[in-house]
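The methods section describes the discrete structure representation at length, but only in general terms. Since the whole study asks how a given chain folds, the encoding of that fold should be made plain. An entry of this sort, consisting of the sequence and the corresponding backbone structure tokens, reads as follows:

. . .
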Amino acid sequence: MKRIILKYIIVICLLAIPGPLSAQISIQFNPFVHGRTLDGLSTVQIMNTNFGNARGYLICTAKDATSNQLIVQIKTPLFEVRNGMNIIDRTTWGNSRFNFGKSQQAFQLQNTGRFGEGEFEFCFELNIDESKSPTLPQTYENCFVQQNQPMTPMFLVDPVDGDEFCNRRPNFMWQVPVPAPADGRYRLILTEIGPKQDIAEAIAYNLPIINQSNIPVNLLQYPVSTPDLKEGHRYVWQVTLHNASTIITKSEIWTFTVKCKEDQTPLAPPSYRELKEKAEGDFYIAEKLLHFSLHNPYGAAALNYSIVDLSQPGRPVKNLPALQMTAGLNKFTIDLSEIKEFKHDKEYLLIVKLINNRRVEMRFIYKNQQ
């Protein structure tokens, strides 16, 4: 029995002996977001879980991952590495020593502050100069690799810039930039603009009607709790892509006006709306029947067309009738009342695809009060 007790005492004593702790200091960096500019390298974060403060300096080295050529090496002055999360303040970063390489990439970074296209390796080495902890290692290092590609702009899609339409609760759609971070989120701001107000000033200072953040996709349906927009009023909207608290890119600022009086007057049959390569700002009113025309400069063929609900642009309407077109001017009439998917007062987009990737379209509102 005494031997068993003695074994337990030995185990407890061994567990109580302090030893070197793993991951006492960790270095964190998001290369996708911050590995595009020289200043972005200063956003490195140092997590100190040593339960004690230390002093040290950081060496940041950026290389071309393909050729291994040095682009820049940055050495900071001594700074305090406190317990918890640490960041490099602007003063420390500004007093750092910058040593640029001899490559074209290094020349571009030195003159523009931005990394070019290519694959880069970012290594951060923290050297502990003073510490009260005898178990704290002298050096910590972590490296990150990032493939930098030019990011395409983020385009707004609908409502179209300068559009006028009779919809007090529109949906919003935009085209995402490429490449975009997988954990990126979008913020949409909609606000009213004054008669002589600048659009940027309106977005920045006016009280938002919609200020929706954390949007995971490129579509926002008009929020249920938000009041209807007002007839005759002009609005501006913009979308921003974020990664955590960092703004990655912003869209342009677009405007639209809610205008119903003229748009509610339908074109009397048999007047046919001609399809255009870009949808016009107003909405055609289709009362049960949809009348449209198009000029086909090619030979006779089946009409390659589709109709999509603008509130669900990824789901085309099914069970549309097959139509044939001839060379020259064509006029078509579709009885929408026979297709159950069409709903009263909803907005739709008619799309016709011609040869040589030509595309003509028309937006319309379906009316059927029965």
About this structure: The chain has three domains: 22-148, 155-258, 273-367. The chain has a mean pLDDT of 82. The helical segments are 2-16, 31-34, 90-94, 104-112, 199-205.
